[in-house]
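G., before I forget:
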Amino acid sequence: MRIIPRLAGIEINAPRGSETRDIDVADDAHSEGALSFHPMDQFIVKPLFGDGAIHWYTPTNVTLWMALTVVAVLALLVFSTRGRAVIPTRGQSIAELAYGFIYKMVEDVAGKDAVVYFPYIMTLFMFIVLANFLGLLPMAFTTTSHIAVTAVLGMLVFVAVTAIGFVKHGAGFLSLFWVSSAPLPLRPVLALIEVISYFVRPVSHSIRLAGNMMAGHAVIKVFATFAAITAIAPLSIAAVTAIYALEVLVSFIQAYVFAILTCVYLRDALHPSH
Amino acid sequence: MADETTTHTDAAHATAGADAAHGGAEAGGLPQLDFSTFGNQIFWLLVALAAIYFILSRIALPRIAAVLAERNGTITNDIAAAEELKLKAQEAEAAYQKALADARAEAQKIAADTREGIQSELDVAIQKADAEIAAKSAEAEKEISAIRDNAMESVAEVAKTTAADVVAALGGEADAKTIAKAVDARLKGA
């Protein structure tokens, strides 16, 4: 985005710059210490109104795109099912499919006694999958590409699962870290590893999602910037298309992975014994 | 984007770090690591999650669950009804087959009875006819033998008369008794 005014400025002085000229400009800009490609600008949090400081309550583009996510949830799961038809319409089929998909996942992965937590997991899944898909719209802001968002999602799961574990089993929840099937001398070592891996869970859980979203969008943006260069524009547009298709897949898969890992952690909390 | 451009050029040309609001992003770092926006993002995330949770748990999920349950109920009922109808159809078919078999047996019985009746009538008629034929042929035979006897007698009479005439014609003299004896002997010998 920022490259445009600069190039425009150059082109006033130089007659219709060739490709090499453009790349020179880009290189110059790079050596200046500022990126000429700005694939990360799409992730900047901005106030919706005016240009003031961002307080916790300021309506920002985060607010807008999260609100759109909520609207999408409403449209998909409430508006489309308003008919309550026994023979479903297309929209209602999608809502039922999403419901069945997550319900079955919770039941199969986390166990039958975990279905009471189904609305919670459904909330996480619907938020992530719709935020991911909305983020693929041109000019969109991808809320799930921010570590602040995914870390909160990951910590919510971590705290909830740990709390459930201790509430259900008390100190018995600690048997999750004590591998009773291993030889006795190995158990303390394994316990240490288990504890570390347990505390790494929310980190990997959240960074996986944010990293996938950020990387995909940044790569699309880089290729989109190359499309300004006439000679490689077709190649770059083809690449953008291909990566976009991949990103559609990744958007769903990451939401699925987040939900299924939540189920796995929940199963550990409900049945801590190995 | 325009304001970003200005802030960026500011950051690039003016003293670094002067732009506090966009410090993380403008220092060349990731916008994701701009901690000044974290509070904002977390606040709005929690609002959005609460809204989605409310929508799902109060409206969407009970509604979808009800629809699915209703559909399952309908399907189960329909299958039960279909099962019942199938049983009824099987019963009806069995009854039909039974009726068909009965009718066929009845028809065979009637046919056999009829055949038997006709046969006995036929037998009686044949016997009667045979008897009649036998009687008629016996009568005819009797008549034939009577006619034959008459014929023989006539032949003997003719022969005797002829013989007497022949003897007379030859100038012989013979009494009727002798001639009759000779003719009878001749007829028997023949």
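The radius of gyration of chain B is 69 Å. Residues 145-189 of chain B form one domain.

More on Monday.
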